[in-house]
Amino acid sequence: MTVLVLAVVVLALGLVALGWAAARRQELNALRAKCAQYEAVLNHLPAGVTLVDASLNVTLHNAALLELMDLPAELFARGSISLEALVRYNAQRGEYGAGPVDAAVEGVMAQRPATPGSRAASPHHSQVSPSGGAQGMSASTGIRPS
User: Fold this and answer.
1) Predicted TM-score (pTM) of this structure
2) Four-residue CA torsion sign, 75, 51, 56, 100
3) Using CA atoms, how far apart are residues 13 and 29, in angstroms rounded to an integer?
4) Burial of 42 (0-12, 13-18, 19+ CB in 10 A)
5) How far is Cα 110 from Cα 11, in angstroms, rounded to an integer?
6) In which order are the strands placed within the sheet that holds 81-82?
7) Are residues 76 and 40 located together in one domain of the fold?
8) Domain span holding position 126
9) pLDDT at position 139
10) Do residue 20 and residue 51 come from a single domain?
11) 64-102 confidence digits (pLDDT tens)
12) How many separate domains does the chain show?
């Protein structure tokens, strides 16, 4: 009798676990779909967008950023790049004027919010969380994204 009760309890727990796993799978699929929607919107914006984490790594960007800032996709090949490396790339190609690259990098990184370039674009910085921020770059059209 005890074995039968134990078997029923184990079976019931197994069914509960299967139900829980199915619900989590549905939630995960819904989150993936929502993420794909956000990614589609981000990649179709005419403004360049970066997301910078608390460690000053660019963790997200869109194609418009590469185009507006004339940046090679290889810079982001690993998925993220440090903001300092991005600023250094711009300094090496003269984006911050003539002079020592290290001094230009130091000067730009000392600014808050940090600006990843000085092309004909208007930077707009928003704090999205205590641990990071988002920055958008739009062509100098006089229109400021909100």
Assistant:
1) 0.59
2) positive
3) 24
4) middle
5) 62
6) 81-82, 57-61, 48-53, 132-139, 121-129
7) no
8) 47-146
9) 47
10) no
11) 999 998 999 998 888 788 999 999 999 999 888 888 999
12) 2
